[in-house]
Every structure is written in structure tokens, then in C-alpha cells.
């Protein structure tokens, strides 16, 4: 029986990192590009949506909730930074697990990262489509529901629209966006009448194929293919495109903070601890869990380590600076939002947009919509970029078909076949699949990767303490404070996602184990001693 826990030696890893030529990835990313990739992955539409839910759990202390969430990511981020500087290879947590925990764990985390990145890109493409449709509404352009959503989501959206109209007529005392309105709407949606269902089908107005209603999210499909095309053309072109998008959305976030500050009423922040944190420390913790997912994505930076010019210096900069900057901006948005509107009145569906509409500045709300589109565009790009690099790393080790996923385009110097496949998968899943449950699977998969990296950094400190570490995460050895806090915080977040998502994760991992034992174990280059191992100078 093959050694399921065989590890890649640091010597073989460093040999791979020195590979050059047309069959290797191109090192062309500096600290600015890497930081931009980090910001591009983190700042999406979440800050413009989740802040509303967080405010109803923490009140004005939503600012502290973002601090707490940022700290939780920082614990994992410091561990990622140490590995990325020490092992400058594509693959991120997959590669780190291979060097510390062995092949079986590496496969599990690689399969898990596929869940995070490919399915994450599908989720984002669907969200991008929603915001794009809203953007068209600014100009009075109506997109057919059956072409803006998959069938199930389109029907649910149509049902929600007719239910909202019915609720507004029956209960004019309830205001849209408030918790009472949302609760009443949920009750109607849970048990819709036959009349409402019929109205929803009429509003959807979907064509029938063999007597079955169909739906296809056309904007989600198109944007995923466009992003895939950019990624195939080259890493430099992808980084430049991402940087342009990031500059745009940073400008919009700063606009929200700067312009919104003119409407801040400091009394809305409270006058003492009780009014600042009406639900106490527990409320802050709950809100931190809700807004935590606004941070997910920074780990994708580590998948580009093999394309960084000076990974020892630049990878930690990219990870830490992007996380720090995003945390500061999130706190600023939270402060402005809770200052503009009393927390009890903050809209939970579109908090920032509604806050500006309260002050009759609709054009500012339109700017926020544009910011959401820009944010999701760069998130999708970095997700698909990370996915193709993880597949490339796994193929190089023989765990996936090497001739397909490991093939580098001679001109563009990108893993083009794997990129196209990941992009097509994201486009198809995002256009025909209800995305809500997949989004929750992405969250639990990401948190699992965080936990494994925190464990792995301690393992390598113990097994190879003398290995040069250009960046050393603080408080790791001999007392692993940072990794333990990372495990506890992210493990707690996994627990809070509930049993249904644990079941989905287990099913996904079982499928992965079937693939491993039927294909990957038999083709593993580590198991067959085929990986190059020769003394090299450390990068």
C-alpha cells in the first residue's frame, strides 16, 4: 500500500520554484500587484450588504465586529504569509499541506480549495448578474427574469416581487427593509397561496422546453467567460485588469466614507457603552460571524507565489497589507452607515443604498451599485486565478492529469487548459444552479483551509525548525498563540454554519476521496519517486 502520508521534501519544492522556461509560470508580480490581488479578492458586494445584518446584531458597535472578524482572518493570514514566503509555489494551502501533513491531507485540501474557488466564482458570477440587472434598471432597461436567473431563483424572485406587492397592500404599516417586513415576507414566501404562485409564473414568463419552464442566467455566463479569457491571455494582463478594477472600487468605497460622513449624526453612535453596543459583547461576536465572509478570498494571493518576482518579500506584503487596508475601509463604512441612520432603522437588504436614499441623494446610491459590480468582477477574477493555479500544482504532482491541467501555454505562460475548464464550470454552474447553498459550502470550505494552514505552520516549525523563513509569523513557537487562535476562531465559524453545511462538506470530501483512491494515488509522482530533488540555493 502506498504511503498515504508521504510528504514532498523541501528540496523538491525549492527545485520546482527555480523552474524556468516556456513550460513554467512567469514571475512578473510585484508587491503592488499582489496587494491589489488581495484587495480584489476581498472587497466585493459583501460590505454593501452584510453590514446591514451586522448592524441589527451589534448596533453602532458593528465597527468592533469588523475589527474582530479582521483579527480572525489575520491569524490565518500571518500563517499563510510565512508559508508563501518560504515555499514560493502555486498551490497555496495544498502545497503547504503536502510539505507538512502528507499527500492525503494535501489532496483533501486541494479538493477543498476547488470547492472554494470554482464554486466561489460561480456564486460571485450570479451575484454580479444581480447587480448588473439593477444597474440596467437605473437606465430604465428591464432584463427578462428567466434570462437573469436560473429557473429556481428566477421563480423565487418573481414570487418575492408579487409577495412584496401583496404585503405592501395588506400591511402599509410595515416598511420594506425592516426586520418586521422581512419576517412577514418570509412567512408569505414559506406558504404562498395558489393565486400568488400563479402570478409569479406569469411574471417570470419563461419559455417551455418539452413542457418544462427553463431559466438561464445569461449575464453570469457571459462575465465568467470574459474573465476566463483575460486569465488565459496572461498573468500580467490579468493583474493590470484587476488593478484597474480595484482602483475603481477603492475610489467608490472612499466615496461612501467621505461623502457619507457629511450626513453622520454622532448621536446615532450612542452616548455610552450600552447605547454603543446594545446587545453587548455577544452581539458583537454574532455580527462578527455575519460579516466575516466579507473577508474571504485573501488566501487566493498565495496561489500566485510562483508568479511573484520576489516572493520572500512580496507575498507577506501582499497578504498583510491587503487584509489591513480592507479592515480599515470596512470599519470606515460601518462607522458611516451607523452614523447616517439609527441602527434600528438600517435597511437589511441594501443598507448603504437605502441610507443615501434617506437623504434624497439617489445618484450616490447608483454609485454604490457600480461599486458592487466592480467589486464582484475582481473577486471573480482572483477566484478563477486561484483555482487554475491549484489545479496546476496538483497536476504537477500527478494527482490530476498532468498533460491537461499542467500544460502551460507557450506564448501566454498560463495554465490555459485548466483555466478554461474552471471558467466553463463556473459559467455553467452560475447560470443554471441555485447559488445560495453553494455559497454556504464555499464558506465552510474556506474556513477548513484556514484551519489546516494554521495547523501546518506549527507542524513545520517543529519538524524543520532550521529552515530559512524570510517571514516568520509571530507567536508560533514554542507557544503557538497565533495558530491556535486561528484554529479556534475559524473552527468556531465552521461550527456556526450548521449541520446541513457540514453534511455537504463531508459529501464533497467523500467524492474527492473516491477520485484520490481511483486515480490520484496511482499516478502520484511522490509515490513513484519521480519529483526532482537536488540541492539548490534557497530563493
TrEMBL record:
Q: Name one GO cellular component term.
A: membrane
Q: Which PANTHER family match?
A: CATIONIC AMINO ACID TRANSPORTER 4, INNER MEMBRANE TRANSPORTER YGJI-RELATED
Instruction: Enumerate the Pfam families for this protein.
Output: AA_permease_2
Annotated InterPro entries: AA/rel_permease1
> Which top-level group of life is the source organism from?
Bacteria
**Chief place where the protein resides:** membrane
Its subcellular locations are: Membrane
- One function term, GO molecular function aspect: amino acid transmembrane transporter activity
- Give the source lineage, highest ranks first: Bacteria, Pseudomonadati, Acidobacteriota, Terriglobia, Terriglobales
**Membrane-spanning intervals of the chain:** 34-55, 61-81, 93-111, 214-234, 246-264, 276-298, 319-343, 363-386, 418-435, 441-461, 473-495, 501-519
| Keywords of the record | Membrane, Transmembrane, Transmembrane helix, Transport
Protein name (record): Amino acid/polyamine/organocation transporter, APC superfamily
Q: How does it sit in the membrane?
A: Multi-pass membrane protein
